[in-house]
């Protein structure tokens, strides 16, 4: 073989430096996601606390049981809307972190496959006569595995995106129906008195 130990050591060193950079980038993305989720939790908690205080003040000021029932029924939808908004935003942050990690993983896989292909080329050049068929078979295996991985990754991303869209649409429709039902119930209570 015509590959010197210095060349192999240099290739390993370059690969290690790339992997360290990828890990640093991944940890930056992870920390960014944690910061977003922390801010989301603080903002949601603050909004719920403000609404709880307002509800408590309105309940204390209520003079009739009917008003208290209206307040309780009317408080259901805002709480569920906050929960839906929180889950939607948390899902977006998690999906972004997953996409970033997947992109880094795919870049690493691509570089690894390029290294495998380069190694196969080196083996082909220095292989004994008659081994070209084995090297060609290895190249075919690598190419087929790469194509299969790309197809599975695209299909999984599409399925995840479609499922997320359907869940968001269903949750929005459920919240709208609940809002209409709550409004109708409050109207019924008001008209009954």
What can you see in these coordinates?
The structure is a single chain. This protein is mainly alpha-helical. The protein has one domain (5-192). 93% of the residues lie in helices and 0% in strands. The chain is elongated. Pfam families: Phasin_2. InterPro entries: Phasin (IPR018968), Phasin_subfam-1 (IPR010127). Residues 12-107 form the Phasin domain. This is Phasin family protein.
Helix and strand sequence: HHHH
Alpha-carbon distance between the two ends? 95 Å
Radius of gyration using CA atoms only:
29 Å
Sheet of most strands: none
Helix-and-strand structural type: mainly alpha
> How many domains make up the coordinates?
1
Helix content: over 70%
Q: Catalogue the unreliable spans.
A: none
Shape: elongated
Question: Counting H and I runs of at least 4 residues, what is the number of helices?
Answer: 4
User: If you average the pLDDT, what whole number results?
Assistant: 81
Portion of residues in beta strands equals under 5%
